[in-house]
Amino acid sequence: MPRLSTWMLRAALVHLGMGFTLGALILFNKGFPVFPSVWATLPLHRELLLFGWLVQLALGVAYWILPRWGTRRGATWLGWVAFATLNLGVVSAGTGGWLLGSEVLILAGRLLEAISALAFAIHAWPRIKPPGA
Amino acid sequence: MPLLVRWMIKAALAYFVLALLAGLVEVAGGPLGLSLPGTHAVFLHLLVVGWITQLIIGVATWMFPKFSKDRPRGDERLGWATFALLNAGLLLRAAGEPLLGDALQGAARWAVAVSAGMQLAAGWLFVINMWPRVKER
Asked: What is the pLDDT, as a whole number, of residue A103?
């Protein structure tokens, strides 16, 4: 497994654990509403599990298994850009929706996530190719 | 395909069907005069946790780099515990959440609270078991 995939997949696992932790607190609170302020973390819960876990896991596995040129995977730096911007985007949009209710942070997060998608698409595009090409 | 993986993927497929049935109940509930307020959350979580996440957990357990020659999938007991806790927790939630605010509220409250603990444990057990298998060659 290449280094970038290990970073993406481990980051995805961390996001899964954190997202499940917030989800469990919210669900427990539905049964016993002892700390109603936990509802404010719902946007962060969604962000962690949708982008931090599911999207990042897909990127990490795709980077690992898509066709290569021998041992080369093409523009590796674009993959690192995708990794960095996705995680910064999750933190920005997630905390913007939770702590601060900040539209600016949410917007910045969405912009970073869009840059991540673009960088990964440009990286992966030429790797979608027939065998031997 | 190992036994644990087969159970996980078949359970995931079952949740795929269950989730869409829950979605159907949610939409049909109004015209039929049923009031089940938690059905939307149940529908979403059956789909995203029961189907998508469990499918990923199953495939990752199967395909990720081996932990070692002797124990290719790490500690299998953790894998089975993840499977049991995730599914028991999710089913408990699906049963309990629509009944919150109903006559069975006391039981429903405990069902969702216990469900939360079970799913939390399942998530972290998976992370702990999978972490050493995410490695460079």
From this structure: 87
